[in-house]
Every structure is written in structure tokens, then in C-alpha cells.
């Protein structure tokens, strides 16, 4: 994950935690709760996309390491 993506992921995750705390409070109305819930769903999608991209990157890096151990050229693509 690039530094920009990492910061975005961290911001999304932080906001999700904030939303969860707000939704757990007794001081929130139905309309506000629905808006926060929708925002949370969208943020969770962003986080999931970031995690999937990170997983793909790790898989690519593992393949490169495996190529080194089998004698294949690291930079062949």
C-alpha cells in the first residue's frame, strides 16, 4: 500500500470507529443514525478495497521471492 493509500485507509478506519461510537450512543436520532450508517457502509467498502489491493501486492511480492528461490529472474514479468 502506498503512503497515500495507507493514510486514506487509516482515515477511513478512524472514521468508522467514530461512527460506531456515535451509533452506540443514546443521543442520536433515527435520521442521523441512518446517514451515519450509510457513511459507514461506504467507508467499509473503501477499506475492503484497500485491503484487497494490499493482499494482491503481497501475493505479487511472494511470487517474486519464490522466483528467486527457484532461480528465475526476479524482474521477469
Radius of gyration, in Å, reads 19 Å
What is the assembly state of the chains in this entry? single chain
What is the H/E string? HH
Low-confidence stretches: none
What is the count of distinct domains? 1
* Share in helix: over 70%
Shape: rod-shaped
CATH uppermost class = Mainly Alpha
SS element count, helices: 2
Largest sheet: none
Structural class: mainly alpha
| CATH architecture label name | Orthogonal Bundle
Mean pLDDT: 89
Query: In angstroms, what separates the terminal alpha carbons?
Result: 20 Å
* Beta content: under 5%
The total strand number stands at: 0
CATH topology: Helix Hairpins
Structure description:
By secondary structure, this protein is mostly helical. 81% of the residues lie in helices and 0% in strands.
What topology emerges from the helices and strands here?
Elements: H1 3-24, H2 30-69
Helix pairs in contact: 1-2
Supply database-style keywords:
about 80 residues; mainly alpha; Helix Hairpins; 2 helices; about 80% helix; about 0% strand
Quickly describe the structure.
The protein has a single domain (3-69), classed as Helix Hairpins, CATH 1.10.287.
